[in-house]
Amino acid sequence: MRSRFSRIPVVIITLAIIAVIAIIGSLTLLGGQVSEVFVTINSGLGGGDYTSADDAVESAPAATAAPMAEAAGEREEVEAADGAAPMGAESAAAERRPEGQITPLKAGEIDDNEAFQDYLAYLRNYQDRPAREADVSERYLITVMNEDQRPLLDAQVRIYADDQQIFSARTYAGGRTIFHPRIRDVSPNVNQFRIVAEKDGVTAERTVERGSVERIEIAIRGVERATDLQLDMLFLLDTTGSMGDELNRIQETIDSIAQRIDDFTPHPELRFGLVAYRDRGDEYVTRTYDFTTDVDSFRDQLNALTADGGGDTPESVNEGLHQAVQGIQWRDNAVRLIFLVADAAPHLDYPDDYDYIVEAQEAVTRGIKIYPIAASNTDAQAEYVFRQLAQQTLAGFIFLTYQPGENGGVPGESTTLQAGDQAYTVEALDDLIVGIVERELAAAIGAR
Fold this sequence. Notes:
This protein is α/β, with parallel strands linked by helices. It has two domains: 4-30 and 89-132 and 228-446, von Willebrand factor, type A domain (Rossmann fold), CATH 3.40.50; 140-220, Immunoglobulin-like (Sandwich), CATH 2.60.40.1120. 34% of the residues lie in helices and 22% in strands. An eight-stranded mixed sheet has the order 11-10-9-12-13-14-1-15, with helices on both faces. Strands 4-3-6-7 form a four-stranded antiparallel sheet. Strands 5-2-8 form a three-stranded mixed sheet, with helices on one face. A hairpin with a 2-residue loop joins strand 6 (192-199) and strand 7 (202-209). The chain is globular, with a radius of gyration of 21 Å.
């Protein structure tokens, strides 16, 4: 069994995530109008899911290449700010940290879809405890846009091979989705893909030769932009026995954090969901709390959780993930995010269990991103699984960093994970999560 000390960072992570809720709500105070928020966010952040100008021109049909190039040029200016600190994030996060909290944890993030060749090399060289194999070497990044060249959130994308549907997904913020034919068991004899995109009953399609292009854009004309912004955030948390004292710390601070959210004017269209998981043989394997806009209710649900059970290192991540993706009511036309806080891989030896690869692909189908946060003592197998979840859902892999040579304790700049072999920047964990959420919201607003 893992020590209680090794669990402390996990809940501090959770505190940071919950603090993000309050900061997200403050975005509505920047100007009152969605368009004003978009301008403000983009002045200090990268464009999130936007493709580059070269990608837009290369993959666009000839008839639309010119306007796409112009729009992509605007996005390129946004991308130039990648790596910059979110506007006011450091001071805003500091103001919302509970008084007396210990030195904030530091964390890094990598995007395995951006450094894709490095990721493929990581998969090839992995030699630790086995995990589920999923061949992601063939991928297609699909962006759906309207006639104003704004990416469309929550567009339906279907892919056909010889008139047989082989893929279905909803686009993320930024109008993108990702298709892995080999995970979907598409026959190697299929030479063409017909891609059909639909939004608000209007469709557009494009046919591509298999392997001829990796980035594909489809423009749907005549689609009106929505004026609201919705965000569904779900926290998928481990509640095994060594979490007891730390869970109490959350319960002592959640009331004030939730109240700050509830006091924002105008009230943001935020919903909070919660899934707690343990392991087979415990009092429960999962407890699922559907989304709510009532922060008091959300606080009560969190405070009712107690820590118990566990024992071995692997846990029922498979079932927890299944409940988070499929056992809860996600909204249409919303930014949909799961933050998975864990340091252990799923059990792979249980009969009649769910499969985290299947759940990741279902998350793609439903337009849900999974952001894993690897806590201290995350081993090689858990890192492998978490990076699979992030890469397959177009999300980032987040990991805590510590002083050189340590895997817990004093926050620092290094990590013992293989992710540390790639370039990454380090910042306070809550600032990092704030930046991620702002990035998603910026892409969503641009997608309207």
